[in-house]
Amino acid sequence: MITDPVTERYLILVFGIVIILMLILDLGLFNRKNHRISTREALIWSLVWIALGLGFGGVVYHYLGKTAGTDYLTAYIIEKALSVDNLFVFILIFGYFKVPPEYQHKVLFWGIIGAIVSRGIFIFSGVWLIQITYLPPFNLFGHETHLNLVLSIFGMFLVYAGLKSFGKNENTETDFSKNIAVRLAHKYLKFSKNYDNGNFFTIQNGKRLATPLFLSVIVIEATDIVFAVDSIPAIFAVTKDPYILYSSNIFAILGLRTLYFLLANFMDLFSFLHYGMALILTFIGLKMLLTDFIHIPSTLSLSIVGGILLLSVLISLIININKKKVQ
Predict the structure, then answer these.
(1) CA nearest 77: which of 54, 44, 45?
(2) In this predicted structure, what is the pLDDT of residue 36?
(3) DSSP structure string for 13-78
(4) From CA 210, how far away is CA 191, in angstroms rounded?
């Protein structure tokens, strides 16, 4: 945990200033007008967000030491890897609601704003729950165990989620009309059928109606909460420091929008990636369950997670190349 109050306030201030400034530049300057995000623009912004994320990791390393810096980078990579699942869902959501390309950035921007708030609630409340749910020490197989109820539940859930993900089909069609968020939205709001130049609300026959664009934001927000159920417990296996967890998490998801526009047309190239993410979830869950018996250093965890991710990407590319040769 961060122990120096001055260092803590300094890092929080730097993090807050960078995030607010970049969001203002993103929406207020570079994307004031609705437009289709080009591959070049997406690549530049992806590199900017990655540079900022890694740069802040360097700040953490400099002021808090090697362990904190490694924990930050590990949590960042885990969140980045698990967030790839969101990209597949973005494709399904935009396809289902027929969101024009020039409005998609706006939807993702406000989706990310919601994620910044919800992730903060999940992480800080999760750390608090972990702190109050340690059971009294007891002897197990001749070893004094300091079992934490919440971490044990998280660990079992992650192992289950990881094993279940091995059989998941990323290309499954989804009927979002059955989504609980969509049903609730239709219950309390009246919707127009047109996008009204990218507005969230429109006036028709003297009545204020929500547009399909607003509905797509609701679905993306709800989807992010579902994905956070996997990713947030996963990073608790890395560290219990809420500031490192939150900053690494936010930097990882802030680059998700531009990554979508960069990779949306190439997602089929990464058909093996979800197996790698399933393996990462399983590894993290086991680490969480066995933490009292087997200590895995932060550097080793980082190497294992990074290695699994790199290997799954390489295998995906090799399989795709071989398929093209056969065809």
Answers:
(1) 54
(2) 81
(3) HHHHHHHHHHHHIIIIIITSS--PPPHHHHHHHHHHHHHHHHHHHHHHHHHH-HHHHHHHHHHHHH
(4) 5
pLDDT in tens, 191-238: 888 888 888 999 988 889 999 999 999 999 988 888 887 788 888 888
CA distances to 95, 103, 186, 208, 285 from 99, rounded to whole Å, are 7, 7, 18, 20, 37
Q: Give just the sign of the alpha carbon dihedral 219, 221, 226, 230.
A: positive
Q: Record the tokens describing residue 116, joined without a space.
A: 């910044």
Residue 280 has pLDDT above 50, yes or no: yes
- The span from the CA of 325 to the CA of 327, in Å, is 5
192-222 CB burial, b ≥16 within 10 A, e <16 = beebeebbbebeeeeeebbbbbbbbbbbbbb
Question: Which pTM value belongs to this model?
Answer: 0.85
Judge residue 174's burial from the number of C-beta atoms within 10 Å of its C-beta, 0-12 exposed, 13-18 middle, 19 or more buried.
middle
Cα angle 285-50-12, degrees, rounded to a multiple of 5: 80
Q: Look at residue 52 and tell me whether its pLDDT is greater than 90.
A: yes
Question: Can you read off the two tokens belonging to residue 130?
Answer: 């972990």
What sections of the chain are H helices per DSSP? Answer: 5-24, 39-64, 66-82, 84-96, 101-132, 149-165, 180-188, 212-235, 242-254, 256-263, 273-289, 298-326
